[in-house]
């Protein structure tokens, strides 16, 4: 279930079809998330935080793509302090990890109260999900992932104290590999949004970390600035340790 190989697949016609949709959605969502520290976990060659305006934005990976990530770390044990991040982006991270619960628990730990997480994934209840079940190439990307449905993901997030904010499905064309066929099926985008909106090949969801029963007192600006500087120090130490 390794995510290794998905980066290369995203350069194929089908991969670019998915990537274009996901990049546009990320660009819209992360623009209005404010704070000091934002981190993207996995797929470091693609910047899903590019339109975010936080002063510190990092791409974190486990080291399989040397030179692409600013921070190298085990995603099950993130090198960030508890309640230190304002935004975490998970592009297909959970479905290609053997222990997605651990990753999500770590995300909950490092996010500040009212911090946000944005998750993308392949939808098992779609034409692509059907292709995954019937294909003989089950070890090839993107089919080897453990696709998570949105209801299941919502249950996981709720158990960890997250509240769903928004979400969307996209990419309604069949799982074809050639550019000409993807172009011919473009008419299904508008039809899918109208007639079968939950059957898109991929989805994106945005959730907020809530702490019910707790009065949220935001730290002073200077305190948060100091915390941001501390995060830079941690990142530099991690980079030096990996060199």
Automatic annotation (TrEMBL):
Residues annotated as domain Methyltransferase type: 71-119
Recorded superkingdom: Bacteria
Keywords on record: Methyltransferase, Transferase
Gene3D superfamilies: Vaccinia Virus protein VP39
Organism this protein belongs to: Rugosibacter aromaticivorans
Gene Ontology MF: a single term: S-adenosylmethionine-dependent methyltransferase activity
Any one of the GO BP annotations: methylation
Name assigned to this protein: Methyltransferase type 11
Pfam families: Methyltransf_11 (PF08241)
């Amino acid at each position: 279930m390794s995510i290794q190989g998905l980066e290369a697949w995203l350069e194929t016609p089908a991969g670019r079809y998915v990537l274009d949709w996901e990049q546009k959605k990320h660009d819209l969502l992360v623009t209005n998330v404010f704070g000091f520290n934002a981190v993207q976990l996995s797929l470091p060659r693609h910047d899903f935080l590019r339109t975010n305006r936080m002063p510190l934005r990092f791409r974190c990976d486990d080291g399989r793509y040397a030179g692409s990530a600013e921070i190298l770390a085990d995603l099950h044990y993130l090198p960030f302090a508890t309640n230190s991040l304002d935004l975490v982006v998970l592009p297909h991270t959970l479905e290609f990890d053997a222990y997605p619960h651990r990753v999500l628990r770590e995300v909950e730990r490092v996010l500040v109260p009212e911090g946000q997480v944005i998750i993308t994934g392949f939808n098992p209840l779609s034409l692509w999900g059907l292709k995954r079940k019937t294909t003989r190439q089950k070890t090839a990307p993107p089919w080897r992932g453990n696709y998570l449905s949105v209801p299941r993901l919502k249950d996981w997030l709720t158990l960890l104290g997250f509240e769903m904010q928004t979400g969307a499905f996209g990419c309604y064309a069949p799982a074809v590999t050639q550019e000409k066929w993807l172009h011919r099926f473009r008419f299904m985008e508008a039809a899918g949004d109208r007639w079968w909106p939950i059957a898109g090949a991929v989805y994106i969801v945005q959730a907020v970390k809530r702490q019910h029963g707790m009065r949220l007192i935001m730290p002073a600006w200077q305190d948060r600035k100091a915390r941001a500087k501390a995060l830079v120090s941690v990142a530099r130490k991690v980079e030096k340790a990996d060199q």
